[in-house]
Design brief:
heterodimer, A: 114 residues, mainly beta, Immunoglobulin-like, 6-stranded mixed β-sheet, 4-stranded antiparallel β-sheet, globular, B: 111 residues, 0% helix
Chain lengths: 114, 111
């Protein structure tokens, strides 16, 4: 069975600094998708970034980028130029073929200080 | 385009009561899902559907039932509510592109 592990329950960063959130996963599938979701206090699940396993190039969305290491089954999220609005719970998630459910890690709570 | 909508936003139930959590999407997605999120945890799959008339169990289906009579709607039924069902419930939908869109969640407390 697939599993997703986030080993950092909490992280903190100062405004304008860079922080990296870690995620590892386990799967025997060769084709899959990885996601980072942000959950602010409003509870809404917001997609931050996605990565297709068949793509070697790391995904980037503005200040958010990933370091995808397929052989190591690692998928970390880097947030550059951190802002107060980045404070939230971040979840790493995995899914296989279309229509299969997301498997979530336990999340990392990110706090941002000024 | 409202995306995924859920009602109610909050609900308090007494032990043994039943209720239905409503979920609707207007994106014509085939796939729909129900997750629950317990405090400090990630989301766990309760049930999912790959199209109208087709549903299947997820990781934590006990105490719940679903139906999918239309593409748009995917209600979740709780029978005989128990304190262990106190949680935040999320509905989501997706097309074949794997990205799931989430509703705003329903916070349920069973006392």
């Amino acid at each position: 069975a697939q599993t997703v592990t986030q080993s950092q329950p909490e992280m903190s960063v100062q405004e304008a600094e860079t922080v990296t959130l870690s995620c590892t996963y386990d799967t025997s599938e060769s084709d899959y998708y990885l996601f980072w979701y942000k959950q602010p206090p409003s509870r809404q699940m917001i997609l931050v970034i996605r990565q297709e396993a068949y793509k070697q190039q790391n995904a980037t969305e503005n200040r958010f980028s990933v370091n995808f290491q397929k052989a190591a089954k690692s998928f970390s999220l880097k947030i550059s130029d951190s802002q107060l609005g980045d404070a939230a719970m971040y979840f790493c998630a995995y899914t296989g073929q279309a229509g299969t459910a997301l498997i979530f890690g336990k999340g990392t709570t990110l706090s941002v200080s000024s | 385009n409202a995306g995924v909508t859920q009602t109610p936003k909050f609900r308090i139930l007494k032990i043994g009561q039943s209720m239905t959590l409503q979920c609707a999407q207007d994106m014509n997605h085939n796939y729909m899902y129900w997750y629950r999120q317990d405090p400090g945890m990630g989301l766990k799959l309760i049930y999912y559907s790959v199209g109208a008339g087709i549903t299947d169990k997820g990781e934590v289906p006990n105490g719940y039932n679903v139906s999918r009579s239309t593409t748009e709607d995917f209600p979740l039924r709780l029978e005989l509510a128990a304190p262990s069902q106190t949680s935040v419930y999320f509905c989501a939908s997706s097309s074949t592109l794997n990205e799931q869109f989430f509703g705003p969640g329903t916070r349920l407390t069973v006392l």
